[in-house]
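Suppose you are handed only these lines of text.
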Amino acid sequence: MDVVGYAVHGEREKLAPLKFARRDVGAEDVAIAIEWSGVCHSDIHTGRSEWGDVMFPCVPGHEIVGRVTAVGSDVTKFSVGQQVGVGVYVDSCRECEQCRSGMSNYCAKGMIGTYNNPDREGDGYTLGGYANGIVVDHGYVVNVPESLDPAGAAPLLCAGITLYSPLKEWGAGPGKKVGIVGLGGLGHMGVKFAKALGAHVTVFSHSASKKDDALSMGADDFIVTTDETVFETHQKQFDLLINTVSAPIDLNLYLELLGLDGTLVMVGLAPEPYPIKAFSMLAQRRRIAGSMIGPVAQLQEMLDFAAEHNIVSDVEVIKADYINEAWDRVVESDVRYRFVIDASTFATT
Ligand code: NAP
Ligand code: ZN
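From them, the structure of the protein bound to NAP can be written out as follows.
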């Protein structure tokens, strides 16, 4: 299957068009005409070599919504025309304990990312969703409910699940005080899901201008972190904090906000290590944890929950040739709150 997309062609290069072929549709595969493709900050970390080696040309994109155009002979769960999604990974070993227990995002051998990962056959590497088509094993494809706005649904495939999963794991719900640190693509999904789950939600942001948006998304409080006195005022008040910030921040300040047995969950992936004061952890028996996207079954659960509660991302739809500007704006925290590429515009570039 021939497709057109956008790729980073070499180190420190900008994204530019790329024509390439997807594999033939195998017995267990689903071919998808991509319609909407979200822009995640991870695409930028990867494409700009902030996390290490990149396989060029690199086609980023792991927030994919489109329609099925063909299915393999063994596929019964999906049919042609169905609206489906693909998230951050497209395969895993299927044999380790994690894979067998339905936690393939934590595959012991490492999940196979939707882009920039060696593929299962071992003779190439994966190319992602900044393109107008993809072929994916049916075990890593989910149904996207028709009631969801499809452009707004695309960011659910990464940003949505990345916040939904820890909110569920750490029991966000009625009576719990949850803080979402950073109101970007991930953070704004966290506000919407935490609210729908019944928690009291506070946003910590270094952008005072985002206050009205945060409150209209359902946040109960909005705290501007550029004034450090707020970290004293709000000490020991929170049960759960989720750090979605893409740059290094002083985690010790945030730890002080947690009450007894409170947890700070890291989902933001700044490349630099964080200095932690043991004293901040000992007090109140605090914990720091991590969380990485979510398994396929939970991805489906989250999409169904989103449909039930009418939750989609706030998106700015862009054309393919705007991707480089969009990346710069994401890094400037100037996105309200997710760029989504109209995949029909790849064909015209
Ligand atoms: P994003 O849209 O750029 O949001 C990040 C937010 O962090 C910004 O909107 C901003 O919020 C805040 N921020 C950015 N720079 C800052 C700075 N210098 N100081 C303080 N705050 C700053 O990015 P995203 O797509 O949501 O991704 C966030 C991070 O999560 C990235 O590192 C990404 O790679 C990672 N990620 C992890 C997973 C996972 O599975 N764990 C999945 C996807 C992405 P305010 O303006 O409100 O302060
Ligand atoms: Zn992502």
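What can we learn from it? Residues 2-158+314-348 form a domain with the Quinone Oxidoreductase; Chain A, domain 1 fold (CATH 3.90.180.10). The pocket of zinc ion (ligand 2) is lined by residues 40, 42, 62, 88, 158 (CB under 6 Å).
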